[in-house]
Every structure is written in structure tokens, then in C-alpha cells.
TrEMBL record:
Keyword Cell inner membrane: no
PANTHER family: 2,5-DIKETO-D-GLUCONIC ACID REDUCTASE, NADP-DEPENDENT OXIDOREDUCTASE DOMAIN-CONTAINING PROTEIN
Keywords, sorted A to Z: Membrane, NADP, Oxidoreductase, Transmembrane, Transmembrane helix
Taxonomy of the source species: Eukaryota, Sar, Stramenopiles, Ochrophyta, Bacillariophyta
Protein name: NADP-dependent oxidoreductase domain-containing protein
The family this protein is said to belong to: Belongs to the aldo/keto reductase family.
Ranges where the NADP-dependent oxidoreductase domain occurs: 102-369
Domain of life from the UniProt record: Eukaryota
An example molecular function term from Gene Ontology annotations: oxidoreductase activity, acting on the CH-OH group of donors, NAD or NADP as acceptor
Pfam families in alphabetical order: Aldo_ket_red
């Protein structure tokens, strides 16, 4: 008997969809942190690569193996640091462990961290949501075995708003310590001021407001700092409004990690200036422009920046590439930079940001570029509640 269109919808499509939705829901609910799974799947897919979260780790190409006889090279000459409240120092050049395909494959993450530390880098930026703590930890452990002192390494991680809350933060940081294989974490940040739609945190489930949840999380980080399990507490993607809410409450705010490159709108520079004049260090993420999400934006910000005439002129003038000019500009603006890369040659280029100095007139010229920000990705965190 031939089926009509109505029968196909009722007996085939609807049951098929129901099974697919039930399978997806079962799968996501069985994962401790489904959002991280989705993130680690979407990033490689948006870069045209099969995700290790689905096909398994160790299959992706990218970061070469680290030679077994490679020993730690000297730290960069003229390395620069930012002073943290309480006396610590944040190396201004770091490496980001998110958002590119190679940061989603545990084997490549291990190699990346090991390469970077052996090449003389010391600042690693991670987050719970990047889903690669354990591989980062293995890279650190191998670098320590080869002679890099633990106390020289600065490890940052972040707690995602789905885990905000006092008890939840304390529990999660204990998990991060275990996953990373460390006795203490150098800095833990609140990753984003508020939860994304449809997501909730233990704190929200208790009926607390977003602002109360941030403060509960901060209280837990302040306790962990007193216990010595974390050395510094900070925030990320916080606008001035969010920062002021935590000031004078518990631990000093050590850092605000924000998107920062020469094409940001003016209010971002205001946030940087406020932080710097109030003892809060600033870390620039996406210092080369947003590079990760290609599905929505088409042309990547990094390519837009590389096409900019002024940056190209300065690149010829200083004999450095556009990425190095952009990183140096952020470093001279007083920020730490954390470009992510799985490529050891790019790591060397990024570490050589300490080797040259942009003249004042060139810094001024780059500062004017903020006025041509159109077309660059920008999320205005001032809108977040
Ligand atoms: N707090 C937050 O909300 C937040 C948000 C986004 C990012 N972050 C952090 O900031 C880090 C940096 O973010 P991102 O947006 O820049 O993304 P990213 O995913 O780290 O991307 C950096 C990109 O630039 C390329 N690259 C790096 N150095 C280069 C060089 N010298 N020359 C040419 N290409 C180079 C890398 O490619 P190769 O691998 O080929 O070198 C990579 O594709 C992240 O890894 C993460 O740790 C934080």
C-alpha cells in the first residue's frame, strides 16, 4: 500500500524526530558538561575538521611531535610581566588553549603545551569549557620532568557560568586541580558575567539573581585563594558595571580577560584604562582579531587585520609580520596577550614580541584604527545583565 504525505509525516518523520531528540537528550544529559561537548564539537566542524569529541583523539594533524631529546630553551630575553595584587607576576606573552581545531585534540594539546614551555613560554590560558585540562596537565607535567620549574609556569583557567555558585565553585576548582595535576592554580577567572539562554547554574536554581551568583562565585574564589589552592582570582568579559560590583568584596580582582585588538570600539579602551588604573591587569584575548568562528562571519577578523594598510606598512618598517605588530601593540598598551597556536613556528614568532619596540608615533597611529572597527566581530558585554 502506498503511503500518502500525511502518513509519512505521522508514521515516519515524527517518530524519527522523537527518537533523534531522545537520543540527543540522553547523550547530552549523560555528559557532565554538555555545553563543553557542543563547543568542542562545533569549533573543529566550523574549521572543516572532524571533531575529536566524535571521531576520537590523536587522529587530527597539526602540531608536530616534540623530539624526545628537546630540553627547555632559555626564557625570552627582555621578557615583560604585569604586577598582580599580592605580589605575583603575569608574563605578558601567553598561549591560548581554545577555539582552534588543534585545541580540541588531546594529543595535539599535549604537544602544544610541551612545545610552548620548552621554547621558553610560561603563561598558559585554559578554561573548563575548553574541555582539555587533562591534556594541558600532561604537557605541563612532561615539561616539568624535562626541567621547567613549576613556579615559573603561570596557569589560568576559568569557571563557566553554568557552574557559578559557592559550593559549586569550590567543588569545580578541586576538579580542575585534579584534572590539571597541579597543587595550585595561578589564576581562576569567572569566564563570562552571566549564563547563556536555556542554561542554568546551581546558584540560579536556588533562585539567586545573576549578580548574587557572581558574588557567591567570587566569595568561593576568595576562600580558595586564602586556602592557597589558587593564587589569584579574576574575571573575564566583564564590563565596568560588573567589575564595580565585585570591587572591595573578598579577593582583589587580579585580572580582566577581554577581547582586545586595535579594531575594538572606544569603550573597550575605557575598560582597559579603568582596570589598569585600579590595579587590575588586563589580558587581551583574540589579540589578532577573532579567528575561530568562520561559519557566521565569513571572512575572519585576522584576515581583515592582515589586509590593513597601516599594519602592513608597519610590518615592512619593523621587519615583523602583522601578527607580531598587533601583539606588540597590545603588550605596549600594558596588556598580556594569549594568541592560541598549535604551530611551534608561530609560538616562536609570538614569543619574539619582546624583541622590538614600536615608536610612539606608530603606537598613536594604531590607536586611531579603532575608528575603523566596522566589520570586526564585537560582543558588547555592557549589555549583559
Ligand atoms: N575569555 C574568553 O571569553 C575568551 C574568548 C576567546 C578566546 N579566549 C582565549 O584567548 C585565546 C586566543 O583567542 P583567539 O580568538 O585568538 O583564538 P585562537 O583560537 O587561539 O586562534 C588563534 C589563531 O591565530 C593563529 N595564529 C596564532 N599565532 C599566529 C602567528 N604568529 N601567525 C599567524 N597565525 C597565528 C592560529 O593558527 P595556528 O594554530 O595555525 O598558528 C589560530 O588559528 C584562546 O585560545 C583562549 O585561550 C578567551
Amino acid at each position: 500500500m502506498k503511503m500518502g504525505i500525511k502518513d509519512i509525516i505521522v508514521w515516519r518523520i515524527i517518530p524519527g524526530l522523537a527518537v533523534a531528540i531522545a537520543a540527543a537528550a540522553g547523550f547530552f544529559l549523560s555528559h557532565e558538561f554538555p555545553f563543553a561537548f557542543i563547543f568542542a564539537t562545533v569549533v573543529p566542524l566550523s574549521n572543516g575538521v572532524l571533531p575529536p569529541s566524535v571521531v576520537g583523539h590523536g587522529k587530527m594533524r597539526g602540531t608536530p611531535e616534540v623530539p624526545s631529546d628537546l630540553m627547555p630553551l632559555p626564557r625570552p630575553k627582555d621578557e615583560l610581566f604585569l604586577d598582580l595584587p599580592g605580589g605575583g607576576k603575569l608574563p605578558q606573552q601567553g598561549i591560548g588553549m581554545c577555539c582552534r581545531a588543534t585545541a580540541t585534540d588531546d594529543v595535539l594539546v599535549y604537544r602544544t603545551v610541551l612545545w610552548y614551555l620548552l621554547l621558553g613560554g610560561r603563561h598558559i590560558d585554559g578554561a573548563h569549557v575548553y574541555w582539555n585540562h587533562a591534556a594541558i596537565g600532561r604537557g605541563i607535567s612532561e615539561a616539568i620532568r624535562r626541567g621547567v620549574p613549576r613556579e615559573e609556569i603561570f596557569v589560568t583557567t576559568k569557571i563557566f557560568p553554568t557552574h557559578f555558585g559557592f559550593e559549586s565553585t569550590k567543588e569545580n576548582v578541586q576538579n580542575y586541580l585534579r584534572e590539571l595535576g597541579l597543587g595550585y592554580i595561578d589564576m581562576v577567572l569567572l569566564h563570562w558575567p552571566q549564563n547563556f539562554p536555556l542554561l542554568s547554574s546551581p546558584c540560579q536554581k536556588e533562585g539567586k539573581s545573576r549578580s548574587e551568583c557572581r558574588r557567591e562565585t567570587w566569595r568561593a574564589l576568595s576562600n580558595l585563594r586564602e586556602e592557597g589552592l589558587i593564587k589569584n582570582a579574576g574575571v573575564s568579559n566583564f564590563s565596568l558595571k560588573h567589575i564595580k560590583e565585585l570591587e572591595g568584596f573578598g579577593a582583589p580582582i587580579a585580572n580582566n580577560q577581554i577581547s582586545f585588538h586595535p579594531f575594538e570600539p572606544d569603550h573597550v579602551m575605557e575598560t582597559v584604562k579603568y582596570c589598569q588604573s585600579n590595579g587590575i591587569t588586563v589580558t587581551a584575548y583574540s589579540p589578532l582579531g577573532l579567528t575561530s568562528i568562520t561559519i557566521c562571519s565569513g571572512m575572519r577578523d585576522k584576515d581583515r587585520a592582515h589586509a590593513n594598510n597601516l599594519l602592513r606598512e608597519l610590518s615592512s618598517k619593523y621587519g615583523k609580520n602583522v601578527s607580531q605588530i598587533m601583539l606588540r601593540w597590545a603588550v605596549q598598551t600594558g596588556c598580556a596577550v594569549i594568541p592560541g597556536t598549535g604551530n611551534p613556528d608561530h609560538m616562536k614568532e609570538n614569543l619574539s614580541v619582546y624583541e622590538f619596540y614600536l615608536r610612539d608615533e606608530d603606537m598613536d597611529a594604531i590607536n586611531q584604527l579603532k575608528h575603523v572597527a566596522e566589520g570586526f566581530t564585537h560582543v558588547d558585554v555592557r549589555q549583559l545583565e
